[in-house]
Amino acid sequence: ANTPVHDAAIIDLAPTILFALGVPVPDEMDGKVLREVFNDEALRARGDLAGLQDPRGIESNANGDNAYSEEEEALVQERLRELGYLA
């Protein structure tokens, strides 16, 4: 659908893309999920991925294990730090 998006900024793209991919959006991330670009079904399917409760910003998989190894987590955090998303 051609839904107009109001008050969107470039910093809203990363959280919106993460949300669209079904990846949790860390609380520390600048910007907001542009929820108006998703239909109700898509919003329900993704649950509340924006506002992740895990302070490490990593979602657990169905087995309760981290989605990333410690090395992968460190690499992702370093890349996000380089991009200015983490302090």
Q: What is the compact description of this entry?
A:
The protein has helices spanning 13-20, 40-46, 70-82.
Keywords:
87 residues; mainly alpha; flat
Textual characterization of the structure:
The protein is mainly α and 87 residues long. 32% of the residues lie in helices and 0% in strands. The chain starts with 12 loop residues before the first helix and ends in a 5-residue tail after the last helix. About 16% of the residues have low confidence.
Q: State mean pLDDT (0 to 100 scale).
A: 76
Please state the oligomeric state of the protein chains shown.
Answer: single chain
Note the gap between the termini. 37 Å
Low-confidence spans: pLDDT under 50, at least 5 residues? 51-64
Strand content: under 5%
Along the chain, the helix and strand elements come as HHH
Q: How would you sum up the global shape?
A: flat
Rg calc: 14 Å
For the report, how would you describe the main beta sheet?
A: none
Structural class: mainly alpha
Number of helices: 3
- Estimate percent helicity: 25-40%
DSSP strand count: 0
Provide the fold topology:
Layout: H1 13-20, H2 40-46, H3 70-82
